[in-house]
Amino acid sequence: xxxxxxxxxxxxxxxxxxxxxxxxxxxxxxxxxxxxxxxxxxxxxxxxxxxxxxxxxxxxxxxxxxxxxxxxxxxxxxxxxxxxxxxxxxxxxxxxxxxxxxxxxxxxxxxxxxxxxxxxxxxxxxxxxxxxxxxxxxxxxxxxxxxxxxxxxxxxx
Length: 157
Fold this sequence. Notes:
Blueprint: H1 2-19, H2 25-39, H3 47-74, H4 79-92, H5 96-116, H6 119-156
Helix pairs in contact: 1-2, 2-3, 2-6, 3-4, 3-6, 4-5, 5-6
């Protein structure tokens, strides 16, 4: 019973982590779902379903890292702005929750300013990075709830 509670807590923390950058949301969600399947001996939720959940988790994880860079690229920013958004996302991990949110924005702005020396275009790149971050959260939430749905259907069938 304690392991079931731990798995459910992992799932709930995983859902929180989709929105809160410092919590590894997708891995916790996948781990909790895997644990529930394992605790049932994979009788209701089989290995194929768990593999599909793992692929969905990898997709959500990739979206998390690519969103800011893709958002910057969408507004026609330079390659330096795209690289700046990616570097800012990585360095932002060191700055806690604020760093994770602000890092890609500042990185994109710095990269675009270095490339074009244009404050307006640098601001556009920063806004695009921020919007990309928000879009990533919405997309990851969709994938997370799809994972829960796939698991629930497999459990009930």
